[in-house]
Amino acid sequence: MFFKTESEKFSRLLESLRDKKVAVIGHLRPDGDCIGSQIALCRVLRSRGIDTVCVNRDKVPFNLTDFVEDTPFFTNETFKNDGRVIVAVDCSDRSRLGEALLEKHFAGTPIFAVIDHHQSHNGDAGQSIVVPTAAATCFLLAAMLIDNGIAFDGCTARALYAGIVTDTGRFQYSSTDETVFEVAGTLIRNGADAEQIGRRIYGQEKYGTLKLLGRFLETVRLCADGKLALAYIPKDAYEQTGTSPEDTETFVNYLKNLAGVAIACKLEQSTKSLKGSLRANGDRYRVDLLAAKLAGTFGGNGGGHKQAAGFSLDGLDLEKDRERVFEQIREWLENPQNF
Ligand code: 5GP
Ligand code: MN
């Protein structure tokens, strides 16, 4: 057994969904772990005769669309709520599902259940299965399927594998222990092909994304004796390169991978907020706490994992407020009280 208590909870959750219609919802700007766990849970529920669909505020990123296959997947615009309960996955709190989606389709609807692995999880779902030490929501989900002896198809195996590959940084983050490989091995035996999945996720880079990366890298600077790497997406860069925010997910890693860097931060302008990605090397610095601190200081939302977190600061402007945010991060990093 990988997760005895959680797997029992999962089995009870399946039982309690038997007479329900379900919407499996993930977080804003969904990543591989989010989409993967949505596809997997949706397919498992459907295979048990439970009427289930997936819905997100945002569309499935282009490099993940192949994983969807015939799984019903909707966005805010295409979805119609016909009395579905919410099961949230890979989502640390209700607001991360997206106000626009909740207001339009689920006003006043409580979250029926959640399956998540965020350190900063702060949900209030009816049933919650949360394991902050799990390397990915897809890992937790796959382990619970295996623990319960629940059969799953190739599409589910591929989706789960995709989530694990992405959330472990291709099996490199500290969360990658032997059980991750055991579960991944089972997924490969059930139809996940490591090379093909790797190529789907990482081998379809667009020319525009490379040009955007160039613009981003021009802004890199090091401070705090080289321990802090900062960079941002220039305001006109998306338009000039024909790209969009979903194309920048891996950019912060270029900063994180610089020799000597302890914390990396990428900033970009979002419609109503200034959006940041934080990464830490090693376990000395907790960027989930830093993200929450920035949200507290400037107003907004922040959280994530110890070594990979993010924030969105309401109403802040990249040009006007960038330096204030960077300065706060530098101060936090240089203040030993924070550790
Ligand atoms: P990324 O930097 O890749 O957008 O996100 C890294 C991690 O931080 C993810 O696990 C994500 O869920 C979390 N995260 C990103 N942005 C936010 C945010 O605005 N609020 C919270 N609470 N978590 C975030
Ligand atoms: Mn995740």
CATH class of the largest domain: Alpha Beta
Under CATH, the homologous superfamily of the largest domain reads: inorganic pyrophosphatase (n-terminal core)
> Averaging pLDDT over every residue, what do you get?
97
Query: Which runs of at least 5 residues are low in confidence (pLDDT < 50)?
Result: none
> What compounds are bound to the protein?
guanosine-5'-monophosphate, manganese (II) ion
Taking all Cα atoms into account, the compactness measure Rg is 20 Å
Structural write-up:
With about 350 residues, the chain is of the alpha/beta class. The chain folds into two domains: about 5-200, inorganic pyrophosphatase (n-terminal core); about 210-339, Diaminopimelate Epimerase, Chain A, domain 1. It has twelve helices and twelve strands. The chain has helices at about 5-15, 30-45, 100-105, 135-145, 155-165, 180-190, 195-200, 205-215, 235-240, 250-255, 285-300, 320-335, and strands spanning about 20-25, 50-55, 75, 85-90, 110-115, 125-130, 220-225, 230, 265-270, 275-280, 300-305, 310-315. The strands form two sheets. Strands 3-2-1-4-5-6 form a six-stranded parallel beta sheet, with helices on one face. It is globular, with a radius of gyration of 20 Å. Bound molecules: guanosine-5'-monophosphate (5GP) and manganese (II) ion. Manganese (II) ion (MN) binds near residues 90, 117, 137 and 167. Manganese (II) ion binds next to loops.
